[in-house]
Design goal:
Number of helices: 7
Number of strands: 3
Helix content: 40-55%
Structural class: alpha+beta
Distance between the termini: 21 Å
Strand order of the largest sheet: 2-1-3
Low-confidence stretches: none
Radius of gyration: 14 Å
Largest sheet: 3 strands, antiparallel
């Protein structure tokens, strides 16, 4: 399991979830980009938020998009949502399950 967490900018909602399905399907460039960003990105939440079993994640994304919309419109650089993946979980899982990708990541 690859642990990940998201929280809204106002810290009203926070959630931990399993990001493994995203890593199972992601291409090399997406994983490299995520690693280069310090294993932090909202795309994982966006990709998984519509799947069965990720209803809490969907609600968190919806809250950030609706309740925090005004703040993000005022300042486009302001992130209404922050998500991070446990880098140790990710690199271990990739080494065991997608070694061809793990070999191409910076150490």
């Amino acid at each position: 399991m690859i642990r990940a967490s998201c929280h809204t900018a106002d810290n009203a909602l926070a959630l931990e979830f399993d990001a493994t399905p995203w890593f199972r399907e992601a291409d090399l460039q997406s994983i490299q980009h995520l690693a280069a960003q310090g294993w932090s990105s909202v795309w994982i939440a966006n990709a998984l938020g519509t799947r069965p079993g990720y209803e809490g994640l969907h609600q968190l994304i919806k809250y950030a998009a609706t309740r925090l919309r005004e703040e993000s419109l005022e300042d486009p650089t302001w992130a209404a949502l922050d998500c991070a993946v446990d880098s140790a979980d990710a690199t271990q899982w990739l080494g065991e399950n997608r070694p061809e990708i793990a070999a191409k990541l910076p150490r």
